[in-house]
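Ligand-bound model needed. acetyl coenzyme *A.
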Amino acid sequence: MYSSKITGLGYYVPENVVTNDDLAKLMDTNDAWIQERTGIKERRHIKKGDGNSTSVMGVKAATIALDRAKLAPDAIDMIVFATLSPDMYFPGGGVEVQEMMGMRTIPALDVRNQCSGFVYAISVADQFIKTGMYKNVLVIGSENHSGGLDMSDRGRGVSVIFGDGAGAAVVSRNDSGKGGILSTHLHSEGQHKNELSLQGPSTEYWVPQIIADNPQENIPYYPYMNGQFVFKHAIVRFSEVIQEGLEANNLDVKDIDMLIPHQANLRISQFIQQKLKLTDDQVFNNIQKYGNTTAASIPIALTEAWEQGRIKEGDLVVLAAFGSGFTWGSVIIRW
Ligand code: ACO
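Prediction:
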């Protein structure tokens, strides 16, 4: 059995900065409320005409990751693309990346696990490498939230949280015999599927029915979130799955050099930090600048932490996510 490691990281966010004050011009909200409840100061939104889309941002992040891994697109054996906001209903973003990067006819797989998407995608890549089937897998998390948010007063409880962006990692066979991805841990609990969801359009709720149900001009197929319910489950599951990963490797929270939590909400990250008794140096947060970018949040944060020299060879790095589904998971890495 082989092992895998992350050999290249990259991220991309659109240039257009949207502050809390900018949002207050569109809906009944304010900077103090958003910062106090979420920690977010600003986020990036794709601007009409800037050429970005979920797949385009994914390609930009992937290009940097490939460059750092010193690999040409031809060396990639598989793409795993995590998003809840693909450019098209179908096909997914993976094939668009394959086409845009001029890659061989390698498999391209889309993962639909929302905030846990990147953790699930890394786990998929890890399994394909462990079995010896592939040597280099490109994992991308990318989201265009701004294209689908309700920017009226009605949407304020959800829309202030989310931002656009993409992150990518090259996962390669680890020939060094040292470290790499030690284990991945995945869970889901479908009974809570409606608590954080976007109902239509889907095969259960297709466009003609949405129009029949909502005869007004603006058809509300916007995300729904039961914020407090999500919050309560997130803090329990995050902590559980981090502990599960550590225990599986006979490690302790004290061994963590860097925890990269999915950037759901600064209060959730702080709660986990407190619960696990982690120091500020052991946890990386950048939600203040980018908002919650769901599947892109972990690779963006991981890349920034690495760029800032906060992750070094030999470090124990833990990725953890919780999100819609509910789905959650962790990845334990010896860097
Ligand atoms: N600006 C100003 N006021 C607002 C806004 C806003 N953007 N949104 C809601 N309010 C108001 C509400 O109308 C309500 O007013 P009322 O008391 O007069 O009825 C008041 O603020 C409190 O609303 P709550 O929804 O109870 O606020 P809460 O303290 O729960 O904070 C939040 C909302 C931030 C969404 C919180 O529940 C939360 O963090 N939940 C976790 C969910 C999360 O992080 N989701 C991220 C995506 S999921 C994931 O990534 C895991």
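The mean pLDDT is 95.
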